[in-house]
């Protein structure tokens, strides 16, 4: 009986904590509070709860299995299912540059810079994170920006549509990129010390690159396969039962995640592509009620999971069984510095190279580059990967501590600073600017369809015969009406 009452009290407390977090986060967003983001509040609230539990002698440990198999999948699937696909593929160039190339370069800069601190000098001033394998793993796991954190920043401001889509696309893709890199490097048996053979290192690097590409490709194929299977089932059989339709949609998507993960692929990448395919084909085969139900429930699950994740990080912060030393302060300081500098350097260099290949109107401006560099919030994926560092890694404990510090510091301070940066740089759009940009985008889409795009359109229309989807129709009269609407809107704003 006592256990039953205790379980009831714990359940009531958990619901109350989650309710306070969700309502407070909603009010912070609605009131445009610039000094604290919803994710920042969740972490602070979690830290307070964790401190109280620690003083009471009850610590909670972070479970990677709970995170990767329960809390993360709804966020990833919702990101793919609600993604604006046309905007994503229109900006796929800079998105892939930042997410794949940028994440890899950032990981290398942070990892090698941290290891470089431990080579020369007095051992008393060396960081506690001082092995080559530990530094490289740290660089990889801390490289990806956090989807929830970035969305919490740019979602509160009416930022230019193109740069918003680039940022969302980057932070959605760099999580699977970092996880695949982490898995490849962790399994590569890199020596912990400085006894490194250059020839062997080059061979290992080439093998790692090949494995990295293979895992990403295989994960994408797995996600597309399950997305098409789901689409075909709903196209072939009309259930007309919203609960059954929703459950079938969820289970098939989750199969893509688990099967990819058990096959040593990336479950996140697979689920992301599965969500994109389901939105493009399967969603049009659902009944009206099931489609509305799916959209709303995905949003609810996403809100619950993202709040639980940040609370979880805060609550488990006091459970790290590690005795701090003066070297840890050196590690934390340099790690934070390298994380910021690597993001700035990677953004500026890659954007410079990208702009060389683009026309003036397609280039990323210096103000937009500053915003990209500032969106450097790290999140739960980094912390979960840190927990997954092998037990035999000598610097595992300081690595976990450093990752936790970076996650909390960037969420609290960089998140707030970035909101201020948006105001200072004046990156927000008014309604007229948005309308004109939308009309310009439509005109460009109609006039600049290259041969490859036309081939894809033909292939896509053929697939829709078997998997469902919305037929493509280009209505010139509609474009003329849209153009007149834009002009009227501009004229109206001019008079006011």
Unreliable runs: 474-487, 489-496
Overall, the morphology is: globular
Overall pLDDT, averaged? 80
Total helical elements:
19
Could you explain the architecture of this structure?
The protein has 496 residues and is mainly alpha-helical. It has 19 helices and no strands. It starts with a helix and ends with a helix.
Spell out the blueprint of helices and strands.
Layout: H1 2-30, H2 38-55, H3 64-81, H4 85-90, H5 92-117, H6 132-142, H7 147-154, H8 161-186, H9 198-236, H10 242-262, H11 267-280, H12 288-316, H13 326-356, H14 366-374, H15 380-387, H16 396-425, H17 431-447, H18 451-467, H19 476-495
Quickly describe the structure.
The chain is mostly helical and 496 residues long. The protein has helices spanning 2-30, 38-55, 64-81, 85-90, 92-117, 132-142, 147-154, 161-186, 198-236, 242-262, 267-280, 288-316, 326-356, 366-374, 380-387, 396-425, 431-447, 451-467, 476-495.
Fill in the keyword field for this structure.
mainly alpha, disordered C terminus, globular, 496 residues
């Amino acid at each position: 009986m006592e256990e039953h009452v205790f379980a009831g009290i714990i359940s009531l407390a958990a619901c109350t904590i989650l309710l306070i977090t969700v309502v407070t986060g909603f009010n912070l967003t609605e009131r445009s509070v610039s000094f604290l983001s919803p994710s920042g509040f969740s972490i602070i609230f979690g830290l307070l709860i964790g401190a109280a539990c620690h003083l009471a002698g009850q610590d909670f440990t972070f479970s990677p299995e709970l995170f990767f198999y329960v809390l993360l999948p709804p966020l990833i699937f919702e990101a793919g299912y609600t993604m604006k696909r046309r905007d994503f593929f229109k900006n796929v160039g800079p998105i892939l540059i930042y997410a794949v190339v940028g994440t890899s370069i950032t990981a290398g800069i942070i990892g090698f810079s941290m290891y470089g601190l431990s080579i020369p000098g007095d051992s008393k001033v060396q960081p506690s994170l001082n092995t080559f394998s530990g530094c490289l793993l740290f660089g990889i796991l801390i490289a990806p920006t956090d989807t929830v954190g970035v969305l919490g920043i740019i979602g509160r401001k009416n930022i230019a549509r193109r740069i918003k889509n680039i940022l969302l696309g980057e932070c959605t893709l760099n999580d699977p990129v970092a996880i695949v890199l982490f898995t490849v490097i962790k399994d590569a048996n890199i020596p912990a010390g400085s006894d490194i053979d250059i020839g062997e290192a080059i061979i290992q690097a080439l093998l790692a690159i090949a494995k990295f590409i293979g895992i990403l490709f295989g994960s994408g194929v797995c996600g597309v396969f399950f997305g098409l299977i789901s689409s075909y089932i709903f196209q072939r059989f009309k259930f007309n039962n919203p609960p059954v339709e929703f459950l079938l949609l969820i289970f098939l998507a989750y199969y893509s995640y688990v099967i990819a993960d058990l096959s040593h692929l990336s479950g996140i990448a697979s689920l992301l592509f599965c969500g994109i395919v389901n939105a493009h084909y399967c969603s049009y085969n659902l009944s009206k009620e099931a489609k509305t139900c799916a959209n709303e429930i995905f949003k609810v699950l996403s809100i619950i999971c993202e709040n639980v994740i940040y609370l979880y990080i805060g609550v488990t912060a006091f459970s790290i069984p590690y005795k701090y030393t003066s070297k840890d302060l050196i590690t934390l300081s340099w790690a934070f510095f390298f994380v910021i500098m690597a993001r700035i350097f990677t953004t500026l260099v890659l954007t410079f190279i990208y702009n060389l290949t683009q026309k003036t109107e397609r280039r990323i401006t210096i103000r937009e580059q500053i915003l990209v560099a500032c969106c450097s919030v790290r999140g739960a994926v980094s912390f979960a990967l840190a927990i997954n560092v092998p037990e035999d890694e000598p610097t595992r404990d300081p690595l976990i501590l450093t990752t936790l510090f970076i996650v909390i510091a960037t969420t609290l301070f960089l998140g707030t600073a970035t909101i201020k940066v948006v105001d200072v740089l004046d990156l927000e759009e008014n309604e007229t600017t948005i309308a004109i940009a939308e009309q310009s985008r439509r005109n460009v889409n109609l006039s600049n369809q290259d041969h490859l795009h036309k081939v894809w359109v033909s292939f896509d229309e053929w697939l829709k015969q078997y998997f469902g989807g919305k037929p493509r129709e280009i209505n010139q009269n509609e474009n003329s009406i849209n153009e007149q609407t834009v002009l009227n809107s501009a004229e109206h704003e001019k008079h006011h």
